[in-house]
TrEMBL record:
Source species of the chain: Mycolicibacterium iranicum (Mycobacterium iranicum)
Region Disordered: start-end pairs: 1-20
PANTHER family linked to this entry: MONOOXYGENASE, OXIDOREDUCTASE-RELATED
Gene3D superfamilies: D-Amino Acid Oxidase, subunit A, domain 2, FAD/NAD(P)-binding domain
InterPro entries in UniProt: FAD-bd, FAD/NAD-bd_sf, FAD_aromatic-hydroxylase
FAD-binding domain boundaries: 13-342
Pfam families: FAD_binding_3
Molecular function per GO: FAD binding
Domain of life: Bacteria
UniProt lineage: Bacteria, Bacillati, Actinomycetota, Actinomycetes, Mycobacteriales
Protein name per Swiss-Prot or TrEMBL: 2-polyprenyl-6-methoxyphenol hydroxylase-like FAD-dependent oxidoreductase
Length: 404
């Protein structure tokens, strides 16, 4: 009796070792695929601020079997609090207060680096991680895709997935989408924790569309954010010295928690400076090459949806390609299945950002008055009856598909 050759193991190359990439590797590995993850940074990036796991993404985490790991690594944030200039609370939104669903602080708040760590640790035995390299060319040959790397190596695969960020360098192999800049800048810093720091997300508004944020983490430090809106574009492309100079000048007259953050950055606290933007490619796939996460459906690089949608997208993409007859058809099905989830992300516009970060003292007082109303018994009841959310759930509502 003769037997034929053993079935060939399908292979996926994934560009990006943040959240979506390792999550996709996890799901493909569990379905018998071989995976290679390409990452241009020399090692796994363990920096980053809080990310939310909301709506259907919580079920994805449960189905992946990492729910316990995630809950053990949450930041311990107990809610969101708007502060007046003197440091007193203007409005508070505890997690799950009065039984409502997630507000600004989600039930599962975890540092981006911690979630990435969990996903990489769960996949590193079955996935070939190649750090310090990037994709320089792609050739789709109908029955396979050939990928050339920066070090000169060439890999063949059944599928290439670009699981990168808003400003993905590899998205061009699918779609030459332009980033819609919204005029808002974020400076994220990890600063020393002091006795006055608590477990709240403390949000202090300042005039001229500026804000100061302090958030707890589970690593003994405090996560700080400075945000401001400007008509000048491209500040995120400046060198770190220039960015620190801009932060000092922009927040020089702001009191409260603001002064300690530029000082900590000047003393060497890690800082990441970014611009808020959106991208909506006309297509998410081209032959055997697909987009996942922010490279495909970034609503504003923040807002409570990005991480959740990346996890949901990884689950759906893996399920479709593992069960469909051919990869290009599966990629079309992936987009159709994902669109209802993407539609749940908050619609972030520049005018909304300006309303949430007022220009004047009067605007801040009005914002705080509205927040107090929303945080009170009447506001919570209206929110519960109407299904409203203080922050976009990003994946709540649609039914999550079931895959073998």
């Amino acid at each position: 009796m003769t037997t034929g050759p053993a079935p060939r193991t399908p292979h996926a190359i994934i560009s990006g070792a943040g959240i979506g990439g390792p999550a996709l590797a996890h799901q493909l590995n569990s379905r018998g695929w071989r995976t290679t993850v390409i990452e241009r940074f020399p090692q796994r990036r363990d920096e980053g601020q809080n990310v939310d796991i909301r709506g259907a993404a919580r079920e994805v985490v449960r189905r992946m079997g990492i729910d316990g790991d995630v809950r053990a690594a949450t930041t311990g944030e107990i809610g969101t609090r708007f502060l007046r200039a003197d440091g007193s609370p203007a409005a508070s939104f505890p997690v799950g207060s009065a039984g409502e669903a997630d507000g600004p602080t989600a039930e599962l708040e975890i540092l981006r680096g911690e979630l990435s760590r969990i996903l990489v640790e769960r996949t590193q035995l079955d996935t070939d991680y190649r750090f310090g390299t990037q994709i320089v060319d792609v050739t789709d040959q109908d029955d396979r895709v050939q990928v050339r790397l920066s070090g000169g190596a060439t890999l063949d695969a059944d599928l290439l997935v670009v699981a990168e960020g808003l400003r993905s360098r590899t998205r061009r192999f699918v779609d030459e989408a332009d980033v819609n800049e919204l005029g808002m800048y974020f400076a994220y810093a990890t600063i020393p924790r002091v006795d006055g720091d608590d477990q709240w997300w403390n949000w202090q508004h300042a005039t001229n569309h500026r804000s100061v944020h302090l958030r707890p983490d589970n690593l003994g430090t405090t996560r700080a954010i400075l945000t401001f809106i400007s008509d000048v574009r491209g500040l995120d492309d400046l060198d770190p010295v220039a960015q620190r100079t801009i932060l000092r000048a922009t927040f020089a007259d702001v009191g409260g928690a603001a002064p300690r953050i530029p000082r900590a950055i000047d003393d060497g606290a890690p800082m990441y400076f970014s611009a808020v933007g959106q991208v909506r490619p006309r297509r998410w796939s081209n032959g055997r090459v697909a987009l996942l996460g922010d490279s495909a459906f970034c609503n504003a690089t923040f807002g409570g949806a990005g991480t959740s949608l990346a996890l949901i997208g990884a689950y759906i993409l893996a399920g479709e390609v593992a069960t469909a007859g051919d990869v290009p058809s599966a990629l079309n099905s992936y987009r159709r299945a994902m669109m209802p989830f993407v539609a749940t992300a908050p619609d972030v516009k520049e005018r909304v950002l300006r309303l949430a970060n007022p220009r004047s003292h009067r605007g801040i007082r009005l914002l705080h008055a509205g927040a107090r109303l929303a945080a009170g018994p009447v506001g919570r009841a209206v929110s519960a009856l109407g299904g409203a959310r203080l922050a976009g759930i990003g994946g709540d509502g649609p039914s999550l598909p079931a895959y073998p």
